[in-house]
């Protein structure tokens, strides 16, 4: 079973959620061999709840995931923390939405939640918690206290960082970092545009139906990461198309 653990279903934070765009994304995910994705949309994207309103109206939700265009879509969220860095939190729909509600006062830059508080709030509920792109120049995680980082389940081998830094140089940073903390590394494309699907994929040895089963398989290392030989082309093409679409929509380029 193949899953991408870091994906977005909106072009940018300031765009509306489009069902047509979502359908196109899921169809392309399937075409790229994915059986499932974790929908880790930014917690401070505009009208976050619209995503779930549309999905609830159009797709069945069972075992903790939606079945959309032939793809299992696990609910999740990407949260900015006060100390700098992003955390991916994946879990049951109701738990994700409850956490998003609690985060409402922390959505503006300068008001982001403290890392330890986010960890405390997400301790229960069976969440899978991943440290996103820990060696990205603008939003790293490696500077944070080890005792807090060890509370995460895994760290993100991110398609965008592989593209910008190179696979071997990036692995030379993230692998010993994760090993020192006793945590696994999982893959995520970090896509906002469908061309990026398939750049980084987690291939699990068996099927899973719940986030808890997914967590157990990750902890057992019952998977391997596949990095596409076309990653550079995929990410570059996605970046170009995303920039053109944002320009057409008059969205500033710094808005992800």
From TrEMBL:
InterPro entries: PHP_dom (IPR004013), PHP_domain (IPR052018), Pol/histidinol_Pase-like (IPR016195). It comes from the Bacteria. One of its GO terms (molecular function) is 5'-3' RNA exonuclease activity. Residues 4-92 form the PHP domain. This is PHP domain-containing protein.
């Amino acid at each position: 079973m193949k899953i991408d653990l870091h994906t977005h279903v909106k072009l940018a934070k300031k765009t509306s959620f489009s069902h047509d765009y979502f359908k196109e994304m899921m169809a392309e995910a399937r075409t790229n061999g994915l059986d499932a994705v974790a929908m880790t949309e930014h917690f401070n994207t505009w009208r976050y709840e619209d995503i779930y309103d549309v999905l609830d109206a159009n797709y069945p939700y069972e075992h903790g995931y939606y079945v959309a265009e032939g793809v299992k879509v696990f609910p999740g969220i990407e949260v900015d923390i006060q100390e700098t860095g992003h955390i991916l939190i994946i879990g049951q729909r109701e738990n994700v939405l409850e956490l998003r509600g609690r985060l409402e006062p922390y959505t503006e830059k300068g008001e982001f939640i403290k890392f330890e508080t986010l960890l405390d709030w997400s301790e229960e509920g069976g969440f899978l918690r991943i440290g996103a792109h820990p060696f990205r120049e603008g939003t790293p995680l490696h500077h944070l206290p080890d005792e807090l980082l060890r509370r995460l389940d895994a760290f993100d081998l991110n398609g965008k960082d592989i593209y910008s830094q190179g696979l071997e140089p990036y692995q030379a940073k993230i692998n010993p970092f994760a090993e020192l903390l006793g945590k696994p590394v999982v893959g995520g494309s970090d896509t906002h545009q469908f061309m990026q699907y398939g750049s980084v994929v987690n291939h699990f040895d068996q099927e899973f139906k719940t986030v808890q089963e997914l967590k157990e398989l990750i902890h057992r290392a019952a998977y391997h990461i596949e990095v596409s030989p076309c990653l550079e082309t995929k990410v570059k093409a996605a970046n170009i198309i995303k920039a053109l679409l944002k320009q057409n929509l008059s969205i500033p380029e710094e808005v992800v």
